[in-house]
Amino acid sequence: LLEVILPKYFQNAHLHGIVNNAGVFATFGPDDWCSTEEYLASLNVNTLGAIRVCHNFLPLVKKCKGRVVTMGSTAGRLHGLYVGPYVTAKFAVEAYMDCLRLEMRPFGVSVHILEPGAFKTDLLSEEAQHARVNKIWEKVPSVVKNEYGEQFKENFKVAWQTGVDLVANPNLQWVVDNYVHALFGFWPRLR
């Protein structure tokens, strides 16, 4: 649809910046619990979503030598335990943005990645996280469930939530401030 609309209605338009903020962290647990579909779903939103937006709107950003700002993750630079689909997708989006940064430099377009880490939002509530673990557990083949056992699943939920409670930042304004700086700051950092 965008391929049809953009050329017709935005021939003379300019766009200062693109903000790729879409992200999903819907599946976590041992890789044995994750299907190819979980990986594809994460890649589709976290990686391909940003690529689609860039492909459709970069021509407008190039006209005014603007900026691309993308929500990456610390998980896009450091491996994580029990987060295979998410880490894979975030590594991929960071790699794409690194390539795009070099390719857009001759056009005066700067490309920036935010890597905020965990923040206390409804997505990280105990109820939401337990629901995600239970949802993926329902899909796990019986032989794998028997290998891990119900107690592993319950211990995993408690350990995961404890980790989130320890590291998740409650200050969401920090992320907003970094978006604003990346879009409008005089010398925004690349990461």
TrEMBL record:
Identify one Pfam family in the record: adh_short
- One MF term in GO for this entry? oxidoreductase activity
BP-aspect Gene Ontology terms: steroid metabolic process
Q: Which InterPro entries does the record cross-reference, listed alphabetically?
A: NAD(P)-bd_dom_sf, Sc_DH/Rdtase_CS, SDR_fam
What are the record keywords, sorted?
A: Oxidoreductase
Coiled-coil stretches noted in the UniProt entry, renumbered to this chain: none
Q: Where are the transmembrane segments?
A: none
Q: Which PANTHER family match?
A: 3BETA-HYDROXYSTEROID DEHYDROGENASE DHS-16 (PTHR43313:SF1), SHORT-CHAIN DEHYDROGENASE/REDUCTASE FAMILY 9C (PTHR43313)
- Per its record, how is this protein called by name? Dehydrogenase/reductase SDR family member 9
What is the taxonomic lineage of the source species?
Answer: Eukaryota, Metazoa, Ecdysozoa, Nematoda, Chromadorea
